[in-house]
């Protein structure tokens, strides 16, 4: 399926992977990560589309935080398409802060967010990416116990709510298995390098059908 967002608003939501240093004082700032790369390539391929790209990712956010920002950072913006990448902090805080997010809390919060979008913005296309982890730092393989059920929850929710689903965890793992050092994709296993952001942007554009 190919989407050309003619004169539409495409909103990206998520955590630090999406935020990526965006300027909070500039509502049009896209940061310096995959969002900006995807927007730049899209606009170069579709220069007359009139598409407006927006980034409202917030570093450190979990699902519950995006839900709390729903009115201001999703509903008020009325996007024609909404891309969501969230969930790794729901895992990470268990291991670095002893502050876990229970699976049912994660799934319930994400479902509530998606239900609000479907209710209030029924024409908005939803693009969902699952949270990802590359095993770079010692002990990160243990995170899988918490991460895998959350990825499965995202997949099931995507089957119910999303127009496009991007299995990012598996896609990035495939690149690592095929010879790209995991650290070259995400230096700490979570935050992408420039190369990692380029891979995510490419996969986003590929799944949207632009490339």
Keywords:
single chain, 211 residues, alpha/beta, five-stranded parallel beta sheet, 10 helices, 5 strands
Largest sheet: 5 strands, parallel
The oligomerization state is single chain
Number of helices: 10
Order of helices and strands: EHHEHHEHHEHEHHH
* Secondary structure: number of strands: 5
Widest sheet: strand ordering: 2-1-3-4-5
Low-confidence runs of at least 5 consecutive residues: none
Please provide a written account of the structure:
With 211 residues, the chain is of the alpha/beta class. Helices cover 47% and strands 11% of the residues. It is built from ten helices and five strands; from the N terminus they run βααβααβααβαβααα. It has helices spanning 16-19, 34-45, 63-68, 70-73, 88-96, 103-120, 144-161, 168-177, 182-185, 194-208, and strands spanning 9-14, 52-55, 81-85, 125-129, 164-166. The N and C termini lie close together (11 Å). The mean pLDDT is 96.
Summarize this, please?
The protein is α/β, with parallel strands linked by helices and 211 residues long. It has helices spanning 16-19, 34-45, 63-68, 70-73, 88-96, 103-120, 144-161, 168-177, 182-185, 194-208; strands at 9-14, 52-55, 81-85, 125-129, 164-166.
Ordered list of secondary-structure elements with their pairings:
Blueprint: E1 9-14, H1 16-19, H2 34-45, E2 52-55, H3 63-68, H4 70-73, E3 81-85, H5 88-96, H6 103-120, E4 125-129, H7 144-161, E5 164-166, H8 168-177, H9 182-185, H10 194-208
Parallel strand pairs: 1-2, 1-3, 3-4, 4-5
Helix pairs in contact: 2-10, 6-7
């Amino acid at each position: 399926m190919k989407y050309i967002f003619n004169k539409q608003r495409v909103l990206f939501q998520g955590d630090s992977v999406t935020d990526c240093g965006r300027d909070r004082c500039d509502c049009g700032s896209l940061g310096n990560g995959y969002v900006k790369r995807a927007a730049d390539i899209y606009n170069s391929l579709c220069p007359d589309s009139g598409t407006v790209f927006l980034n409202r990712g917030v570093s450190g956010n979990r699902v519950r935080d995006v839900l709390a920002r729903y009115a201001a950072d999703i509903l008020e913006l009325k996007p024609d398409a909404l891309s969501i990448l969230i969930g790794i902090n729901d895992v990470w805080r268990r291991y670095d802060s002893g502050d876990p997010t229970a699976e049912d809390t994660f799934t319930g919060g994400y479902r509530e967010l998606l239900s609000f979008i479907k209710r209030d913005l029924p024409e908005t296309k939803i693009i969902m990416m699952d949270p990802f982890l590359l095993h770079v730092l010692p002990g990160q393989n243990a995170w899988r116990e918490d991460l895998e059920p959350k990825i499965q929850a995202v997949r099931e929710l995507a089957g119910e709510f999303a127009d496009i689903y991007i299995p990012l965890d598996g896609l990035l793992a495939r690149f690592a298995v095929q010879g790209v050092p995991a650290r070259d994709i995400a230096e700490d296993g979570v935050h992408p390098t420039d190369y990692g952001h380029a891979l995510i942007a490419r996969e986003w554009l590929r799944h949207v059908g632009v490339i």
